[in-house]
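ok new one. same drill as before - C-alpha cells go in, u give me an amino acid for every spot. 361 of them this time. try not to just spam alanines like last time pls lmao
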C-alpha cells in the first residue's frame, strides 16, 4: 500500500526532528544534548526502587495530583507567582507539554512566532500541525529582538534561557511582548534552574503567559520524561481536556515528587555545573580564534572565525569519541554548542580541543 497517499496533505513533505546523537555503546564523552552530567540524587533512585512494586499493574494518576501539590508547595513557593495546583499541568517531558499547546491552538495556516536561532522543535511542531513558522531573528549578540509583537498569530514562543545561545531574556521585554501579542505566549524555561532569573512572577500580571519547565536538565531525569506548564487555570483546564489520559507514567511521577523533595541537595550539586561552565568559558576564551558567549544555562555557545573551523572541530572531536553539537543552519554555522560536563569530561574535552586547534586550525 502507498501509505504516503493516505497521510494528511500538509505532512507529505514533513521532515522529522533530528535529535542529537545518543550512542548506544559506552566510552563517549557526551556533551551534545544538554543532559545533566551527574546522575539523579541517590535518594531519588531509592524512592524509584521502592516504588517499583505491585503498583506497576495499575494506571497512574492521570492528573499527577501529588506531584502538582509538591511542586506548588515546595518549588513555586520560592517565587512570587500563582498559588493553586489548578495552575499546573504535567506532561511527558516539555516536548509533550508543547505539543498539547499546539494540539489545542494550531490549525493549518495559523502563524506560530518564535526567534531565530532557538530550539528546533518549534519548527517541527509548527509543521506537524500545518502552521506557518514566523521566525524573528534575534538582535545583536542574540539579544531580544527590537520590535513590537502586535503581529497576528496564536502562539509566540520565547525560550529563556535560549537554546542554543544560552542567555536569558529580561522580564520587561517578555512582559511587553505578552501585553502586545494577541495570542498565547509560551516561555520555555527548560534551563531556568541554571539561571538567576525566571518569568514565573509575571504570571500574576498577564493572563496569556504559559511557563514550561523540564525535569530533564536540572533534575537529571531526561530518560524518564517529565515536564510542566504553569499558567492561568482556564488554560490549564483546556490543556487537560486534550491531553492523552495517562500521559505521565507512574515512575516519572514518583521520581518527580522525590526530585522536588530533594531539590536543595540537587541544586547544591548543580553548582558544580555552574563552576565548570565558568572554567570552560575562561579556558576557551584564551584562544584568539574563538569566543564564548555568556551563558545562563548548562551549555555554552562557542564562535569560530568561520564555518569550516566550527564543523572541523565537531568532526575531529567526534573521531576522538567526544560529541558536541554542530548546527548547519546559516545563523549558527560559525558556532558549536557544548554541554557542560563533569570536571573529568571537561578536562578531556579541553585537552583534545587544544590538540585539534594546534594541529588543524
Ligand atoms: C529549549 C528546550 N525546550 C524543551 C526541551 C525538551 O525538554 P524535555 O526533555 O523536558 O522534553 C529541550 C531539550 O533539549 C530544550 O532544549
Amino acid at each position: 500500500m502507498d501509505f504516503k497517499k493516505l497521510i494528511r496533505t500538509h505532512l507529505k513533505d514533513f521532515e522529522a526532528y533530528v535529535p542529537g546523537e545518543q550512542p548506544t555503546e559506552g566510552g563517549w564523552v557526551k556533551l551534545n544534548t544538554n543532559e545533566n552530567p551527574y546522575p539523579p540524587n541517590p535518594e531519588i533512585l531509592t524512592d524509584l526502587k521502592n516504588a517499583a512494586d505491585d503498583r506497576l499493574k495499575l494506571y497512574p494518576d492521570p492528573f499527577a495530583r501529588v506531584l502538582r501539590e509538591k511542586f506548588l508547595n515546595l518549588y513555586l513557593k520560592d517565587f512570587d507567582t500563582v498559588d493553586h495546583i489548578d495552575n499546573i499541568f504535567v506532561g511527558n517531558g516539555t516536548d509533550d507539554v508543547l505539543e498539547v499547546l499546539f494540539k489545542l491552538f494550531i490549525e493549518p495556516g495559523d502563524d506560530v512566532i518564535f526567534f531565530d536561532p532557538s530550539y528546533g522543535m518549534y519548527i517541527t511542531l509548527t509543521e506537524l500541525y500545518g502552521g506557518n513558522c514566523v521566525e524573528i531573528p534575534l538582535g545583536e549578540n542574540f539579544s531580544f529582538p527590537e520590535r513590537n509583537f502586535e503581529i497576528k498569530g496564536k502562539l509566540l514562543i520565547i525560550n529563556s534561557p535560549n537554546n542554543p545561545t544560552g542567555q536569558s531574556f529580561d522580564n520587561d521585554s517578555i512582559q511587553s511582548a505578552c501585553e502586545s501579542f494577541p495570542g498565547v505566549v509560551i516561555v520555555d524555561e527548560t534551563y531556568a534552574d541554571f539561571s538567576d532569573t525566571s518569568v514565573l512572577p509575571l504570571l500574576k500580571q498577564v493572563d496569556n503567559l504559559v511557563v514550561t519547565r523540564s525535569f530533564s536538565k536540572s533534575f537529571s531525569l531526561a530518560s524518564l520524561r517529565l515536564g510542566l506548564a504553569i499558567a492561568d487555570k482556564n488554560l490549564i483546564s483546556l490543556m487537560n481536556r486534550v491531553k492523552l489520559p495517562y500521559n505521565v507514567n507512574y515512575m516519572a511521577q514518583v521520581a518527580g515528587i522525590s526530585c522536588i523533595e530533594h531539590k536543595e541537595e540537587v541544586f547544591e550539586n548543580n553548582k558544580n555545573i555552574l563552576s565548570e561552565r565558568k572554567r570552560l568559558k575562561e579556558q576557551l576564551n584564551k584562544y584568539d580564534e574563538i569566543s564564548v558567549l555568556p551563558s545562563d544555562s548548562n551549555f555554552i555557545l562557542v564562535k569560530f572565525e568561520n564555518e569550516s573551523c566550527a564543523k572541523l572541530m565537531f568532526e575531529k572531536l567526534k573521531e576522538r569519541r567526544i560529541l558536541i553539537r554542530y548546527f548547519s543552519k546559516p545563523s549558527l554555522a560559525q558556532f558549536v554548542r557544548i554541554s557542560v560536563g563533569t570536571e573529568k569530561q571537561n578536562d578531556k574535552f579541553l585537552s583534545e580541543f587544544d590538540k585539534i586547534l594546534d594541529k588543524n586550525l
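The mean pLDDT is 95. and btw The pocket of pyridoxal-5'-phosphate is lined by residues 34, 93-95, 119, 159, 163, 188, 190, 214, 216, 222, 227 (CB under 6 Å).
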